[in-house]
Fold:
Amino acid sequence: MVDVRSGIGEALPPPEVEDVELYHPHSWWTRYVFSQDAKIIAIQYGTTAIAIGMVALALSWLIRLQLGFPGTFELIDAERYYQFITMHGMIMVIYLLTALFLGGFGNYLIPLMVGARDMVFPYANMLSYWIYLLAVLVLAASFFTPGGPTGAGWTLYPPQAVLSGTPGGRDWGIIMMLSSLIIFIIGFTMGGLNYVVTVLQGRARGMTLMRLPLTVWGIFTATVMALLAFPALFVACVMMLFDRLLGTSFFMPAIVEMGEQLQHGGGSPILFQHLFWFFGHPEVYIVALPAFGIVSDLISTHARKNIFGYRMMVWAIVVIGGLSFIVWAHHMYVSGMNPYFGFFFATTTLIIAVPTAIKVYNWVLTLWRGNIHLTLPMLFALAFIVTFVNGGLTGLFLGNVVVDVPLSDTMFVVAHFHMVMGVAPIMVIFGAIYHWYPKITGRMLNEAMGQIHFWISFIGAYAIFFPMHYLGLIGVPRRYHELGEASFVSTSIAELNAFISVMALLVGAAQILFLFNLVWSLRHGREAGGNPWRATTLEWQTPETPPAHGNWGKELPVVYRWAYDYSVPGAPEDFIPQNQPTPGRLSHEAAS
Amino acid sequence: MSVVLFFLAAIAAIVVWWLAGQRLTSRPWLEIGHLHDRRGPARIPPAKIGLGVFLAVVGALFSLSVSAYFMRMASSDWGALPLPGLLWFNTGILAAGSITLQWARAEAGRQHDEAARTGLLAALASGLAFLVGQLFAWRALSGAGYFLAENPANSFFYLLTGMHGLHILGGLIVLGRVTAHAAQAPIDSRTRLSIELCAIYWHFMLIVWVVLFALFAGWASGVIDFCRQLLT
Structure:
C-alpha cells in the first residue's frame, strides 16, 4: 500500500492527516492540572507512579529487615509481613511498571515520536490519568482501613485471599485491592485506546510503520496486549468481589473456616488461577516490550550505530506479543493440571526464548564495533542486557516442568522474576529517564550523582539477587515470615540473608539520591539544548525544548528516513534526523 | 479457556491481515525520501478505529467470562436456571433498537434530519425498555427463588446480564448525548459519525446478548459438545 518515491525534489504528497484542532487551555488549572496535553499527563503519570513506587520501595526495606534480622523488629509481625510483600508486589508490577511504561513513557513519547500534535482523544487521555490516580489512592487508602491492606500475596489466590486467616481477607483490605484494580483497568483502557489509535492514525507524513522507532513499536504492541489481557484480571476481580461480598461461589470451594462451615461450595480456585495468569503472563511482556523498544533506541543512539536487524526486531516484538498469550499455565505447573498441558505450555514457553534471544543478539551486534559512548543511558542499557540475559536463563530452568516443580515457591522464583521483570525493566526506566530528561525539562541530569546511582544500583542488584538464587536452590521457601528451625537451614543462610538485606537497604538509599537528582537538576542541571544526544528521532527535532503545547509549532514534521541513520558514510554529521530529506543540513537549507 | 483463545485467534487474524499490508518486509534503511503511506482507501476516522479497538476489549471481556462459565459449569453443583419468557421479548426490543439505529444512520446519511432524530429517539426508548425488561427478568427470577448466591448458574446469569446491562447503560448515555446534540442543530458530519458509531456499538452489544442468551438457554453447550466431538 505504499509508493516509494525516491526523488527528493519531487512535490510533497498531500497530507494524509489533516492538522488537528487542539484544545487550548485557558487557565492554570486546565493547563497544568486537568491538562489534556499528553506531555503533562505523562509527567503526572510518572510522578504518581514513582511516588507510589517509593512506598513499595520502603515496603521492600521492611521485608528485607525481617528476612535478614528475624525477630529484631517487633513492628514486623507475620500479618504485617504478608501485607508488605503483597503490596510491594502489586504496586511494583501494576501501579509502577505498567503505569510508568505505558502511561508515562507512552504518553510522552508516542505523539512526539510519531510526529503528532497530541493523542487522538485528549479528553479520554486526561480521564485515564485521573482514574489511575483514583486507583492509586484507593490502594493507598487500604493501608489505613481496619485490618490493614490485604496480605494475600500479589497473586491474590482464592480461597485464602478472602478468608479470615489472611490479613484483610475478612476486612476491607481485599475489597480495596480488588476495587483499585478494577478502577485501574478502566482507566488504563481509556489511555490504551489512545496509544493504539494515535500510532495507527496520528503518524506524521512519511512515518510508515517500518520507520517507527522501536520504542513506539514496543509500547504499541504492549498496549495492544494489555488491552486484551487486562480484561482477564477485571473478570477475576469482579468475580472475587462477588464471592467476598455477595456470597457467590465462583472461586470458593466448600470450606470450613474456624470450625464453621461457610456457605460457599463447588467453586474452582483453579479457575481464578487461569484468569489471573491469562493476564499475568502477558503482563510480564507488557512491561518487557516497552523496555525492549526503549533499550534498542538507547543503544543505537549512544553507540552511534544503526540498530542491527531492524526488521527482525519488529517481527520479534510482534511474535513475542502473540506467543505470550499461550504460555500462561507455566505459572500453574504445581496446580495439578494434566501433564500434557504442562508439556504444551513448557514448549510454548521455550519457543518464546527464540525471538527474545534474537533481540539480545541484535543488541549485542549493534554494540559490536559501534562508537560506544558510556553515557548514563548507555550504562543502564548495558546493565539491562546483562540482567535480562541472566533472568532469561533462569526462566529456561523454570519453564521446564521437571525443573520447576522442585523450585516452585522457593526463593529461586523470587530471584528469577526480580531479575527479569524487576531489575531489568527498572534499569531501562532509569536509562530512559536519563535519556529523555533533557527533552522534558531542558536540562541534563547531574552526571556524578548519576554515576553513583548507576553503580550502586547495578552492582547492588546483583548482590541482592544472585545469592537469592542460591538460597532457592537450597530450598529456602518464599513467602515465609521466618524460617525457624529446619534441618536444611544452616547458619550460613541466615548470614547470606543478612548480607542481602544490607545490600537492599543500600540500593534503596541510592534511589533517594536519584530522586534528589531529578529535583536538583530541574534548577541546577546543565542546559541541554534541543538535541544533546545528537539523536535522529523526531522528539529531538521539536522547535522548542521542552516541547510546547502542540509539539511542532506551525508545521507538522515530514519524515524522510528511518529512525536509525547514525554514522552514515558521506554524511557531514554522524546522525541524520528523520525529518531531514538530504544527508547534509546545509544542502537541505540551500535547496529550500 | 478455549473460547477466549478462539476470540484471540480471530483478533490475531485481523492483526496479521492488517500487518500484511504494512510492508513489514521492506528495508527502511534503503528507502530515503517520500514514502506515501496510504492508510486504507478512504481514511477511516480515528474515532471509528478507537471504537473498533474498544469493541475488541469488550469482546475479550465477554469471551473470558464465557470461558469462565464453561469451566465452572463442569462442576457437579451446577443447576441450570429456567429462563423467563420475558428474555425473548427483551431480545426483540434490543434487536429493534439495533435496526432503528441502522435506519437512523441511513436517514442521517440521506440528510433526512427529522427522520434521523425520530430514529435516535426510538433507539433510546428501546434501549431503556431493554434495561427495564432485564430488571423485570431479574425480579421474576429472584421472585421464583433463584437468588444470586444460590447456585453458580444463577451467579453467572446475574453477573453476565449485569455486565451486559452496564454496557448498554454506557451506550445509552452516549446515545442520549448524540440525540440531544442532533436535536439542537442540523446534523453535520460529526453527528453523522456519532450515529454510525452508536449503531455499530448497538449491533455489537446485540451479538453479545444473543451469544449470552444462547449460553443461558443451553444451546451454546450443545455447540461446544459438538465441537469437542469433532476435535476428539
